[in-house]
Design brief:
The structure holds two protein chains of two kinds. By secondary structure, chain A is of the alpha/beta class. Chain A has a single domain (4-316), classed as Thiamin diphosphate (ThDP)-binding fold, Pyr/PP domains (Rossmann fold). Chain A is built from 13 helices and nine strands. In chain A, strand 6 and strand 7 (194-195) form a beta hairpin. Chain A is globular and about 50 Å long. By secondary structure, chain B is an alpha/beta fold. Chain B has two domains: 2-183, Thiamin diphosphate (ThDP)-binding fold, Pyr/PP domains (Rossmann fold), CATH 3.40.50; 196-322, Rossmann fold. Chain B is 35% helix and 21% strand. Chain B has helices at residues 6-20, 44-48, 60-71, 91-98, 101-104, 151-163, 211-225, 244-253, 268-280, 302-308, 312-322, and strands at 2-5, 24-28, 53-55, 76-81, 114-119, 144-146, 168-173, 180-183, 196-199, 204-208, 230-234, 237-239, 256-263, 289-293. In chain B, helix 1 runs parallel beside helix 6 (151-163), helix 3 runs parallel beside helix 4 and helix 7 (211-225) packs across helix 11 (312-322). The longest helix of chain B has 15 residues, at 6-20. Chain B starts with a strand and ends with a helix. The chains are: A alpha/beta, B alpha/beta. At the A-B interface, helix 13 of A face helix 3 and helix 10 of B. The structure holds thiamine diphosphate and magnesium ion.
Chain lengths: 335, 323
């Protein structure tokens, strides 16, 4: 697809990808895919409780953006945030254990699938209330600005979230204060069971940014290098004190909204077209063309990552449950 | 009487009322062709069409505020809040506009609207999707707040709420959606407010709401095995809080225990205890007891979540500690 942009070129040059980078991007996408597949499998086995929101099909967004962030950046996301956590190096065993409600989970089993958080890794939180995370990321953006070390605050959200007040308030504040915030919209065309054209006056959400005079770019969210380039450019602007950006990544979720949703409300032709543009397949083909990968090598990476996720999930499933007698809710709730 | 689920009871009430009065319309997220995430609106869109069954964008402030606009201009809107937790998003519209608009107009406007909020713990939905929210609006004059605990109550109270000429917040409970019970389809409209006695007893009075009602009835069975007969009330409405029948019960049993699925501080149990103490201080053999969630958010992990939700055993033990 052709990218739309309102971007003025940033003063800072974006670092071009090396071959090693490309293979790392590919592996990260595979990792996220295999993690989510393992979550799905675990869910069916009864290891994951309540609900879970998977991101298969959207891996290029997490991998491509994640590759840009520095260790001291702040990243906020939603219930559909497993990929962003992995892209930032969240320990998979800890993530699985959290989904399984075990004491070794990254949040001690208290948070669950919708709230994977690791502040030490700059993963400031997964917000289950649509739009709820955006103002929080604005706050982290103020911190980044005050610190004066070129940090940024990135916040991920869906197309549906652009209909809620918090989105608009956050965009406006960030622009008025020229904050180093990246608003990264994963436009997967659906909010739960409702297609975007039923909830939003247009499908190109980049138009939202115009109302806030914000730098904005729309990219093919299934093209990991395009995502990387757009994010790197926006990040360079943010770090240079040139203010926030809105990055719209056009993508698609392969599965339903959450675990119980068979996603029957989607036109099979639409699904088929997007499956044909599976970000992993697209990138595999691109890397094969560049002679960085062969089908066999790609299969080997997939097998490795599958085994890795499987092993992490098995270790997590063997971990103990939190102890109801000794758990210290007061310490969990208050500092 | 028909045996139907709480979910079917909600749907039956909506269907019936919408057939009766074409000024009634419903708004909510994914309630149209997909029938609602909890399937409480299944078939409404097909029957009543897109004008009266409105799929909204994710915009609770927008569509809850719009409900007030519709209500004061002649319609009778219903707004569905998918998870009661999301009431937080539209709090301003409810507490500053909906609750006060008639008052501020000098009693001239009428705001017949219903906000249905599906809340509650027990399904492993974690801290932001497990709150009942039932006391969040307790200190807001101008609201009527009800909480049906069974299919029959869901059916009856929702019909009563829709016919009422003032704003009503109906707290439903997602752990009850699949529970079955006898429903008097087409029966008389029950009173919207006021408690209901569900089990007679002479030794203790238990007052509960939503999913805690069933657990309190189970607790009463456990207590009966030990020779303690508990009288169990479903509080039904939190606003207005009507405690007359509870006071009469306590005069007989001399013991009061409230059971609610939320933190103790700021809960409705405190108000029941205060009103009963005011009216029947001399009859109480022990200070009123309260069983609640701990004063912390709801944890995700199943053993943790199970341990914080009051169980029949815990309720029974609390009664025993008082008698
Ligand atoms: C305030 C609020 N309203 C409703 C919901 C229920 N809900 C959860 S996810 C979702 C759809 C969000 O769609 P989008 O922003 O496009 O993100 P996606 O799920 O596609 O990643 C809805 C309506 C919620 N969590 N919070
Ligand atoms: Mg979406």
């Amino acid at each position: 697809m052709k990218a739309k942009t309102t971007t003025r070129t940033a003063k800072t040059k974006v670092k071009p990808l090396t071959d090693k980078d490309r293979l790392a991007l590919f592996r990260m996408m595979v990792r996220i895919r295999e993690f989510e597949e393992e979550v799905q499998r675990s869910y069916l086995e009864g290891l994951v409780h309540g609900t879970t929101h998977l991101c298969q099909g959207q891996e290029a967004v997490a991998a491509g953006t994640g590759f840009v962030f520095r260790d001291d950046d702040y990243v906020g996301y939603t219930y559909r945030g497993h990929g962003h956590c992995l892209a930032r190096g969240m320990d998979e065993e800890g993530a699985f254990a959290e989904l399984f409600g075990r004491t070794t989970g990254v949040c001690g089993g208290v948070g669950g699938s919708m709230h994977l958080t690791d502040i030490d890794k700059g993963l400031i939180g997964a917000f289950g209330i649509v739009g709820g995370g955006l103002p929080v990321s604005v706050g982290a953006g103020v911190t980044a600005q005050m610190n004066g070390r070129g940090q940024l605050s990135a916040t991920f959200f869906g197309d549906g979230a652009t209909n809620i007040g918090a989105f608009h308030e956050a965009m406006n504040i960030a622009q008025v204060w020229k904050l180093p915030v990246l608003f990264i919209c994963e436009n997967n065309l659906y909010g739960e069971f409702t297609r975007i054209n039923h909830s939003t006056p247009y499908e190109d959400l980049i138009r939202r940014a115009e109302g806030y005079a914000m730098n904005a770019v729309q990219v093919d969210g299934n093209d990991v290098e395009a995502v990387y380039a757009a994010t790197a450019e926006a990040a360079a602007r943010a770090r240079a004190g040139e203010g926030p950006s809105f990055i719209e990544c056009m993508t698609y979720r392969h599965r339903g909204h959450s675990r119980t949703d068979p996603a029957k409300y989607r036109d099979p032709k639409e699904v088929e077209a997007w499956l044909a543009r599976d970000p992993l397949k697209l990138y595999e083909a691109a890397l094969i063309k560049r002679k960085l990968l062969t089908r066999e090598k790609a299969e080997a990476i997939i097998a490795e990552e599958r085994a890795r996720q499987r092993a992490a999930s098995e270790r997590a499933a063997a971990a103990p449950w939190p102890d109801t007698d000794t758990i210290d809710y007061a310490a969990l709730t208050f500092a | 009487m028909q045996e139907i689920t709480y979910r079917e009871a909600i749907l039956a009430a909506l269907q019936e009322e919408m057939r009766r009065d074409d000024k009634i319309l419903i708004m909510g997220e994914d309630i149209g062709p997909s029938g609602g995430p909890f399937k409480t609106c299944q078939g409404l869109y097909e029957e009543f069409g897109a004008a009266r069954v409105r799929d909204t964008p994710i915009a609770e402030t927008g569509f809850v505020g719009a409900a007030l606009g519709l209500a004061i201009t002649g319609y009778r809107p219903i707004a569905e809040i998918m998870f009661a937790d999301f009431l937080g998003v539209c709090f301003d519209q409810i507490v500053n506009s909906i609750a006060k608009h008639r008052f501020m107009s000098g009693g001239k406007v009428k705001a017949p609207l219903v906000i249905r909020a599906i809340g509650g713990a027990g399904l492993r939905f974690a801290a932001q999707h497990s709150q009942t929210g039932e006391s969040w609006l307790l200190s807001v004059p101008g609201l009527t707040i009800v909480c049906p605990s069974s299919p029959n109550e869901a059916y009856g109270m929702l019909r009563a709420a829709i016919r009422y000429d003032n704003p009503v917040v109906v707290f439903e409970h997602k752990a009850l959606l699949s529970t079955k019970g006898p429903v008097d389809i087409g029966g008389p409209i029950p009173p919207l407010t006021g408690p209901k006695m569900l089990r007679e007893g002479s030794d203790a009075t238990i007052v509960a709401s939503l999913a805690m009602v069933g657990r309190s009835l189970e607790a009463a069975e456990l207590l009966a095995k030990d020779g303690i007969e508990a009288e169990v009330f479903d509080i039904r409405s939190l606003r207005p809080m009507i405690t007359g029948p509870i006071v009469e019960s306590v005069k007989k049993t001399n013991i009061l225990l409230t059971v609610e699925e939320q933190a103790q501080v700021g809960g409705w149990g405190a108000e029941v205890a205060a009103q009963v103490t005011d009216a029947a201080f001399d009859y109480l053999d022990a200070p009123p007891g309260r069983v609640t969630l701990p004063d912390f958010p709801v944890p995700y992990s199943p053993p943790l979540e199970d341990s914080v939700i009051p169980s029949p055993e815990r309720i029974a033990a609390a009664v025993k500690a008082l008698v």
